[in-house]
């Protein structure tokens, strides 16, 4: 099945999956018993794929993230809906999208890898791509993400052109925020994108470990629709059709080959802002990649995901975050902090009364 408003040229299309009958489906990440005994990585992600946002959103409030995982996700707000619409519109400005029926988890990963190859091709031919899938390992945990945009740009005073990674955020106010107001979660998200992108560009791709972690059969041929699409639209497959079977083992070879032509991204990262009401461009803010900062955050986050420590809520100075939190009424951390404060107040009153 193909979604089309106009007749798209398939070679200029990214893929999106429609789920068919799963013959070897992944059910391990669904509801899991004995929740307390398992690490959050095992409990909520089936010990397989963590997302870049699984690391970055811990910077806002770990308890909020933990509650959202237990609840099976966050409530979709108006802002989130508007953000998704703007992202979709931006992506469709660049290319069409073809829907493909997937029957196996290998098909689903085949689509991700095809979209990555498609994005890298766009980088090499038009120096810009949107919604680029990337992945890698962080302290042994597999992480996957989709970069909003990578574009070749001239940064600073040098004459050098660099791959600049950017993320698009929507805003309710029609002007740019102050530079100091870029939230740490946004910075960590972009820094982790850069880290993963650069590792791939440097050839750090352990395909065997990826297939093992995700329990994928790299030699299983893709289902017909995807296999045919790849054979027609992916040069390496139509040129060497006989020895190049459409499966994950061969598709990742093409990914590795494409990354061989790409180099590391700029140390300057971009946050591009759009006005939520009408999608209008509000401009961009830039900040510098900080290796120590991201490493410290990843080390701390990994301990949470591996279950080596409990999540933490916000410190008292950031209690304003609780005001709009959907979990505030029953949040253990918040209720404990309120109790602590009341005890302190009582103790203070007793001391003051004792003095008088
Ligand atoms: S109420 Fe506050 S501490 Fe609790 S989850 Fe929400 S933001 Fe975090």
Give your account of this protein's structure.
This protein is of the alpha/beta class. The chain has two domains: 295 residues, no CATH class; 39 residues. It has twelve helices and eight strands. Strands 2, 4, 5, 6, 7 and 8 form a six-stranded mixed beta sheet that branches. A two-stranded parallel sheet has the order 1-3. Helix 5 runs parallel beside helix 10. It is globular and about 95 Å long. The N terminus is likely disordered. The site of iron/sulfur cluster (SF4) has 14 residues, from helix 3 and helix 12. Iron/sulfur cluster binds next to helix 3 and helix 12. InterPro entries: EXOV (IPR019190), PDDEXK-like_dom_sf (IPR011604).
**How many separate structural domains?**
2
Helix content: 40-55%
- Give a short account of the largest sheet: 6 strands, mixed
Sketch the topology as an H/E string, one letter per element: EHEHHHEHEEEHHHHHEEHH
Q: Hey, roughly how much beta strand do the residues contain? A: 15-25%
List the helices and strands and how they pair.
Elements lengths: L12 E7 L20 H6 L3 E3 H5 L5 H10 L6 H17 L1 E7 L2 H22 L1 E11 L2 E14 L6 E11 L12 H18 L5 H7 L10 H10 L1 H5 L8 H12 L8 E8 L5 E8 L2 H15 L26 H24 L1
Bound molecules: iron/sulfur cluster.
Keywords: Exonuclease, Hydrolase, Nuclease
GO molecular function: single-stranded DNA 5'-3' DNA exonuclease activity
Pfam families: Exo5
